[in-house]
Amino acid sequence: NVILDNQGTVDKYMGDCVMAFWNAPLDDDRHHRNGCISALRMLAEIAPLNVRLEQEAKEEGRKHVPLRVGLGLNSGECVVGNMGSDQRFDYSVLGDTVNLAARLEGQSKSYGVDIVLGPNTCAAVPELATVELDFIQVKGKTEGVHIHALMGDEEVAASDDFQNLRKANGEMITSYRAQEWSKTREFIAMCRGLIGDYRIAGLYDLYEERVTEYEVNPPPPDWDGVFIATTK
After folding, report:
1. pLDDT tens, 184-193?
2. What phi, psi does 169 have (nearest 5°)?
């Protein structure tokens, strides 16, 4: 319902996954933002959904397992239309842009955040609250992409708390790519103190683990900061 309310097209259900796209079949000048707002509102629906599911579990005498969701959004050119054969076809999207979106969704768990954005999507929504996560080469690709986390809407983006976290996070990543490990640790500690209610603590656990490894086995001098992901 959230996707449809924000001009999205529900493509298909794949196990525990919902695939959707924007800007087709009808043009949508705000498709980047509509996709991002849909992701944020889907997250907002999880808490009341879990309350209902927990009540159902109690009534039926079984254990409640809370639902969590991770999302990936990417923007770019792709092929859209009826795909398949004369016997069976489906209105869907195909292409490298779509493949990367799927990889980004899979990285939400790795980086400990809820929503991962590709570079084009992030660049198109400067008004929303985003922070850079990494320069990553996802599985099946030969080049790295800058990925970001979507943390909130315009109201969140304008808050002093978020701006302070975003600034410290950027400085942490800059020092990390410069292989300044002690400075990176200082910024990680600073970021931890600014987290508040944002679900991003896992990101700093991840960077702390990397720094610990690189202090012993540093990357080459010409390292560009890319991290090669081995999982989807």
Report:
1. 999 999 999 9
2. -65, -45
How would you class 188 by CB atoms within 10 Å of its CB: exposed for 0-12, middle for 13-18, buried for 19 or more? buried
CA distances from 27 to 21, 37, 131, 197 (A): 12, 17, 28, 36
pLDDT mean across residues, the chain:
95
d(CA 60, CA 40): 31
Quote the pTM value: 0.94
Which helix (H) or strand (E) covers residue 134, if one does?
strand 129-137
Among 70, 69, 74, which Cα is nearest to 108's? 70
The closest alpha carbon to 132, from 120, 115, 149, 144, belongs to 149
> What are the strands of the beta sheet with 227-228, ordered from one edge?
71-73, 115-117, 145-152, 129-137, 227-228
Beta strand 71-73 with 17-21 is: unpaired
- In angstroms, the CA 97 to CA 21 distance is 11
Please check the confidence at residue 99 and state whether its pLDDT lies above 90: yes
> How big is the CA angle at 202 (ends 200 and 206), to the nearest 5 degrees?
125
- Residues 223 and 178: their CA atoms lie apart, in Å, by 9
